[in-house]
Fold:
Amino acid sequence: MMSQPSQKTSLLIGQISILIISLVTAFMPQYSMYIFLGYFIIIMIVMFRSSRKMSKIPPKNELGAPLFKENGAIKIAMNDELLTQELKKQAMGSMSLLMLTFMVFILFPLYRQYAFIPIHDALSSAIGNTIVVNFLDYYIMYQVIFGILTLSRFLMQNKLGQMNLMIPQKFHLYRIGIVANDRMFIPLTSDLCFVFDRKRHFVELHSIKNKGFRIRLYTDAISELVEKLKSLKVSQCVEEAKI
Structure:
């Protein structure tokens, strides 16, 4: 999960995708809606398959013996009075972002109805090449929609703060990574750092590149887990540890 693309990478992928889909649509403008829907569906499938692939647990011979076990993390988490507020905020943010994703089905017809023709006429007056005009028609449209969604997502995330908080019910620490809930693997890469809160009984792993995701490990043995992470070359985040 920690290997999800950063915001810069996601923006780059988005720009390349817009360029490609605009080129395809320029030659088949009558199928623009179907091409766009197909692109949207493919992206969703790729993201889903990618997340499943990242969750695959390595074989036991690669994992080795566990260095730290916590099978009662969920019970410890239930005693954290502030957790409920955080989860409510996360749920609200996730729902808002989901609704924002489907705004594309509103923006697309609105743009086609009110902006497409005036921009097409302006481009046709300035450029004589029909194929170039068709390409720019859709390139501008996709950029406008992509820009509105990206800006809205950015503003929403800033307002709601961190939302991608993962809390395993149980976890085992190995030399190469963490197995959470017996079904998800988080590799211990150089991209990770940690903070901890003794009062709330958790250690939290942060991704340096992708700050939108955190995994919180609840345990009563905070000192032991911190020392194990340090021995595996996982550094403490720039943020000061909470005591």
Observations:
- The mean pLDDT is 83.
- The radius of gyration is 23 Å.
- The first helix runs from residue 7 to 27.
- Residues 25 and 31 are 7 Å apart (CA to CA).
